[in-house]
Amino acid sequence: MNKMKINIGPQHPSTHGVLQIITELDGENIVNCETEIGYLHRGMEKLAENRTYLQYLPMVDRVDYLGGFFNSFAFCDAVENLSQTEVPQRAKYIRVLMMELNRIASHLLWLGTYLLELGAISPYFYAFREREMILRFFEKLTGQRLMYNYFKFGGVRKDIEFTEDIEEILKVLPEKLKDYERIIADNPVFLERTKDMGIITEEAALNYSITGPNLRATGIKYDTRKESDYYKDIDFNVITAEKSDALNRYLVRTGEIKESMKIISQCLDWLKTDTSDCISSKINEINLKLPEGEYISKTEAPRGLTLCCLVSDGSEKPYRVKWRTGSFYAVQILPELLKGHTVPDIMAIYGSLDVILPEVDR
Amino acid sequence: MSISEILQNKFVNTKIIEEKGKIFVENNTKEILTHIKTDLGFDMLLSLYATDYRDYIELNYYLYSSVKQEYLTITTHVTSNTDSVTDVFKSAYFDECEIYDMFGVNFTGNNNLKRLLMPADWKGHPLLKNYEYEKEAVYE
Lengths: 362, 140
What we know:
The complex is a heterodimer of chains A (about 350) and B (about 140).
Chain A: E1 4-8, E2 20-26, E3 29-36, H1 44-49, H2 53-56, H3 68-83, H4 89-118, H5 122-142, E4 151-152, E5 155-156, H6 164-185, H7 188-194, H8 202-207, H9 213-216, H10 246-273, E6 293-301, E7 304-312, E8 320-324, H11 326-338, H12 345-352, H13 357-361
Antiparallel strand pairs in A: 1-2, 2-3, 4-5, 6-7, 7-8
Chain B: H1 3-10, E1 16-19, E2 22-25, H2 29-38, E3 44-52, E4 57-65, E5 70-78, E6 81-83, H3 92-103, E7 106-108, H4 133-136
């Protein structure tokens, strides 16, 4: 039997970053495969040790550039818990609102690029059109489209004074989602390419520590938002499916977009009735010194569970920061999923995991 | 009975202390984690991370139980060598490679330990507290 080795990447347009997949082929079938990461390593954890907390805060958006708010939140939450700072209720709702908008933007980008990888070009433009509405709003409020630096220790930097943009998004998006369903989920070619592709069993998902939509598609209802203090008065469902194949992962993500819209409208209603204008508690950001201790903050990011483990030794710089992200573990399960499939399925399976490489390498 | 007491009854010869929300175990981590996974139902190793305290390196195993919806941290102190837990949790492979890469801890039983994030010919282990960039990081 003649086996052939083929390198896919590191520079491949479908990998969303720089990932090398070394495949061993028998004809067109994948016999073995290995992943090589580290091309986007920026030393996020080492950089933290040489900076004060305030100096490090703008950098954490870059851990996952499609979910900047989630990383900011993870770090701020860890700092607030260590310093025992109270976050005002209004800031909490603003944070939840921004994170859920960010989740929709992130899932929409995934949807567009995934369909592009499967060969459908027009859904890419549709998804980006809707994502653009959200990014415009972010730009108007924070001044940035991707790296926001909007959360601060103890609250947020600016109050939301205009809600028309969000209401517009909430009005337009449900109709567009119906369009997507007509274009995508009813399309026999899409179904053929995603059904029973890259099945993650429940056991494998737990063993490989898969989180986020990839895990929930197996039927395990693990969503840290349900444990969080921030979401305790908000009514939403955790979307699950029976089997984690590429199609169900798509369905879980689109379902999550709808749930996020539910959360956003509840937050908006609350923010409108609320009369307080306190968006941040008083905290000395510049000379911030945390008491000795360790805290792990849990955030349900679009690509799985994000943990920020913060260790403080009492000085003005963090002693150790560790980022745990969902994609790091999703890359690890890839060889297992690809075995037995053919070369054209590589991107159909890899894309369905929604991996973002900056988050893997940090 | 708390988890640390259950573990202490099972592993009589190992020093097990519960402090600051973590369970410290002196050695035998692999056997203890196997027991925790199979008998106590903590089926996910969410994260394995290290911290350098100059005299020793602290390893933290952050576990989650999908059945009981509980979290648990097992912590241990190592200097340069410890047992690999990749047979118990497959997700530990990347974590162990990263800790080897960044802290220089060798995991016995992990057959494919490699530099995960740094270039393969990098000298030194960057996240150690005594690491000096100018001295040690030289490309060959």
